[in-house]
Amino acid sequence: MNINPFDILKNAQKIQEQVGSIQDKLALINATGSAGGGMVEIDITGKLEVLAVRIKPEAVDPEDIAILEELVTAAIGQAMEKIREKISGEIGHLAGGLGIPLTGLGGN
After folding, report:
1. pLDDT tens-digit map of 52-93
2. Which range marks the domain in which residue 55 is found?
3. How far apart are the first and last CA of the chain?
């Protein structure tokens, strides 16, 4: 079997371009997760960067911080799930072509 090193370089360059394209698209994908009927909202990007956290004053009870912590955790989880769905729909075909599994994104 003859392997042409130029073919390997061409394929590597193509993969690098596709990865760059995926990274660019990830930065443009955003999602908001909310919990407690909108009392806590979290905005994240496809790169899993938190853009904003909004907490309504009525969600803050100094006597019950655990509830607020649960709301924040739930809002982050919802935002992450939305991002996974968007990534699968919008750029999944590019990642799939590279053999990159999207199922592990965000800890799944």
Report:
1. 999 999 999 999 999 999 999 999 999 999 999 998 887 766
2. 5-99
3. 39
